[in-house]
Amino acid sequence: MRACRREPVDVTPVWFMRQAGRYMSEYRALRARHSLLEICRAPDLATEVTLQPVRRIEVDAAILFSDLLLPLEPMGLPFDFVKGEGPQIEHPIETPSDIDRLKVFEPREALRHVLEAIEQIQRELNGRVPLIGFAGAPFTLASYAIEGGHSNNFARTKSLMYGHPEAWHRLCEKFATVIADYLVAQIEAGVDVVQVFDSWVGTLSPADYREFALPHSHRIFQAVAGRVPSIHFGTGTATMFDELREAGGDVIGVDWRVPIDEAWEQIGFDRAVQGNLDPTLLLGPPRRMLDQAEDILERVAGRPGHIFNLGHGILPSTAVENVQMLAQYVHRASRQIR
């Protein structure tokens, strides 16, 4: 929490994207009995999965186990997860009229199970570490809703965006309304920090981001401003730090494609930063992983406001021992730098 506020810390805090997941045997055992959506919808199970990495890894925050697509179903876009392929939307958005049929819903009712999980997790954590809540940004949610799942080129998304800009903005306004209210509800339920995932926004140019995404993300960050610290996460965003900063967030995520000191200078030192180790380094020799972590810490040079993280999520084939080793190393090395 101090790092989010750019206050001095004794060591650099650490948490990891996809902190809970298939690289952990405890999670795989639970997934053998329950689908991902079943875990998301059951507060007891979501609590257990959220706590698994906190018990095993020297992390300084827990992140709610949920999925950024959960708001889609109550809006009228049911989906499921297909093994080996990821999420699939049953009836993707194809025309502007599809957008008009989407519902703006009350998250305290339709997503009550998420809020109950937050309350239960906080009781279990009992102040041990802060809890991060999260939601998807309008552009990333729109890309899933239009593509029907993940995409390599986002051709359908951009076709609607460029060809029907008025409809695009109506869609993103609906997502912004829902997500802003959903994050406020998470804060009311007890999360200490919120992160907005704009995972696929790096597919846009800075000009397109400014026109088609920035106003809607900005609305979300304005809704949570002053309540709890906020983190703005994206990948492939090295050309649009100015735009991300303008959209909002007390902490700006930086992936591995740009040195963290250069990124921070462009973002501005009045914002904190999060990042920025390449997750594939956790698959290779530990020495290379630790050397790169040390390079990140040396570039930051103890400046208040750095949260150590990966540039994206932990990969399923990662050894849990490497994750633990990395967290311990960051704490040890950053203490020495200070």
How would you describe this protein?
- There is one protein chain.
- With 338 residues, this protein is of the alpha/beta class.
- The chain has one domain: TIM Barrel (Alpha-Beta Barrel), CATH 3.20.20.
- It has helices at 25-31, 36-41, 43-56, 72-75, 96-100, 107-110, 112-125, 138-147, 155-163, 165-189, 206-212, 214-224, 241-247, 260-267, 286-300, 320-337, and strands at 62-63, 79-82, 86-89, 131-136, 193-198, 230-234, 251-253, 272-277, 306-310.
- The relative contact order is 0.15.
- The mean pLDDT is 96.
**How many β-strand runs?**
9
Architecture in CATH?
Alpha-Beta Barrel
Shape: globular
Tell me the major beta sheet.
Answer: 7 strands, parallel
- Helix and strand succession? HHHEHEEHHHEHHHEHHEHEHEHEH
- Tell me the strand percentage band: 5-15%
Strands across the major sheet, in which order? 1-4-5-6-7-8-9
Overall pLDDT, averaged? 96
End-to-end span in angstroms? 18 Å
* Poorly predicted regions: none
**How many DSSP helices?**
16
What structural class should be given to the helix and strand makeup? Answer: alpha/beta
- Domain count, please report it: 1
Percent helix = 40-55%
Radius of gyration: 19 Å
